[in-house]
Amino acid sequence: MGTLRDLQFSLQTKIEELQQRDTLIDELELDAKDELIRQLQGELDPLHAASVSHNPSGTTEVTGELATQSRAISAEPTGLDPNQLSHVTLNNDSKSEESQRLIQKALLENDFVKHLEASQILTIMDCMFPNTLAQGCCVIQEGDDGSTVYVPEEGLVEVTKGGQKLYTIEPGKVFG
């Protein structure tokens, strides 16, 4: 049997080995997280490029073309003075529960909308209405006023710049 000093030395050696393993595990976890960040950044870059890229005339060129025939839910602004909104009756288009869930999920995932109050999001949902678009039609073109919000229920929407496909918008995502 070892002496107390031998046991203390052995224990200290094991503690140091465990600390080295913990350090290695931490480094591996950070490497995995760094890789995930790079992957997500790669997915975001085309979107960022689409929103900030400019052509020689100084305007941003982003168009959306339907890859397949789509059904979308859209809402248009009323164009009223905010001080007069207490007298406004908003249109409430009836939607299936499935459409309501899809719209609500899309709005809550959207960076511009998700910070609104729940009542505001419900009001936006209520005002949205169905719209069927033909395959290949242009939904939004550079220079258009940003006055309509779309949430595709079916089909795909391609975002292009100068004829180059940048991104595909799938059902349940907000654009416009």
How would you describe this protein?
- The protein has 176 residues and is an alpha+beta fold.
- Helix content is 41%, strand content 20%.
- The chain contains three helices and seven strands; from the N terminus they run αββααβββββ.
- The strands form two sheets. A four-stranded antiparallel sheet has the order 4-1-6-7, with helices on one face. Strands 3-2-5 form a three-stranded antiparallel sheet, with helices on one face.
- A hairpin with a 2-residue loop joins strand 6 and strand 7 (164-169).
- The longest helix has 49 residues, at 4-52.
- The chain is elongated, with a radius of gyration of 26 Å.
- 14% of the residues are buried.
Short description:
By secondary structure, the chain is an alpha+beta fold. It is 41% helix and 20% strand.
Layout: helices, strands, pairs:
Elements: H1 4-52, E1 63-66, E2 70-75, H2 97-109, H3 118-127, E3 129-133, E4 138-140, E5 149-154, E6 157-161, E7 164-169
Antiparallel strand pairs: 1-4, 1-6, 2-3, 2-5, 6-7
